[in-house]
Amino acid sequence: MGKQSIWLINNEASGSNDEDALGLFENACADCGLTVAHRTVFPNQDLPTAEVLDAAGIETVAIFAGDGTINTVLETLAGWSGAVLVLPGGTMNLLYHRLFGDMETADALAAVAEGRALRRRPGVIETDYGHAFAGVLAGPGTAWGDVREAMRSKGPLDMAAEARAAIAETLYGTMLRVDEPEMGKREGYPLLLLTPTDTGIEIDAYHAETAGEYLEQALALAKREFRDGPHDRLGKAERFVLASTARDGFGVLLDGEQCQVDGPTEFRLVPCQVDLLATVADD
Questions:
Q1: Where are the beta strands (DSSP E) in the chain?
Q2: Residue 178 pLDDT greater than 60, yes or no
Q3: How far is the C-alpha of 192 from the C-alpha of 202, rounded, in Å?
Q4: pTM over cut 0.70
Q5: What one-character DSSP code corresponds to residue 184?
Q6: Do residues 216 and 91 share a domain?
Q7: What does the alpha-carbon distance between residue 110 and residue 166 come to, in Å, rounded to a whole number?
Q8: Which of 225, 188, 183 is nearest to 201 (CA)?
């Protein structure tokens, strides 16, 4: 079997994407017959377009980065005829595990080289504000996104200030509820987690109704371990509307990237617009 050429995109700021990890990745590629023909370091360098990839004869792009970079690359390559290999270069790597289960990176690369990783277009979340391939967090609790950024790039005093602001926003901000179809409590929740699957979008509601639960939730959010906080599974749907109880705008994290929506917003399950390589057939 001849060498397969790939175009690597990585982000040096991602959670588990240091030079040692890149070295192990390149060694694993060499061991299984993959060649890194080109490399883009995002965001320092522009992402390759479909036209650039086709001109270079590249059929596979590998993304070794976190959710935010993966989101940007997949949006950029929507409609491309090649395939994208998502690798665990971030903190939680939710999309990678959805595509490859608990497989180690070297084993995933071997599966690609040997043709055992097949093309797949998993269900993803579409909104008027963009797509989410790993998941969506919505509601006043998304103020904790600022805390996470402070943990990564600022000192302890800045982090403490962001944490105080996030606590106030989560406790006293306008709650969010699920409409069309209605799910859960009408008085709403401080944080909703939306997770795409091939058969629908799963909706988990996180709450902070007692001091103990709130402290548990605060710790889980600050550590980025959103699923560890106290929550209820509200259900699954192919489309629904999220709205604040005041019918105004609210905060959203699309694959960890913050944005503000103007009012009630529809979330829809759609197929990914570019082929992703996977050993897990569906979910």
A1: 4-10, 34-41, 60-65, 83-88, 118-120, 123-127, 130-132, 136-138, 176-179, 191-197, 200-206, 231-237, 239-244, 250-254, 257-261, 265-271, 275-278
A2: yes
A3: 10
A4: yes
A5: S
A6: no
A7: 43
A8: 183
Contact 74, 130 (CB under 8 A): no
For residue 123, being part of any structural domain is answered with no
Show the domain range for 54. 4-116
| Cα gap 201→21, rounded to integer Å | 33
- The total domain count for the chain is 2
pLDDT at 93 over 90: no
> d(Cα 76, Cα 111) in Å, to the nearest integer?
25
Same domain? 195 vs 140? yes
241-270 CB burial, b ≥16 within 10 A, e <16: ebbbeeeeebbbbbbbbeeebeebbebbbe
Within this chain, do residues 84 and 44 fall inside the same structural domain, yes or no? yes
Average pLDDT, integer, range 155-168: 62
* List of residues 6+ apart from 210 with CB closer than 8 A: none
Domain-located, residue 280: no
Q: How far apart are CA 71 and CA 255, in angstroms?
A: 7
Confidence of residue 225 (pLDDT cuts 50, 70, 90): low
Whether cis (ω within 30° of 0) applies to the bond prior to 43 is yes
| Cα(136)–Cα(192) distance, integer angstroms | 8
Helix (H, G, I), strand (E, B) or coil at 171: helix
List phi, psi (to 5°) of 154.
Answer: -125, 175
- The answer on pLDDT for 252 being more than 80 is yes
**Position 212 confidence tier, pLDDT thresholds 50, 70, 90:** low
Using the structure block, give the residue that is written with the tokens 């192919």.
238
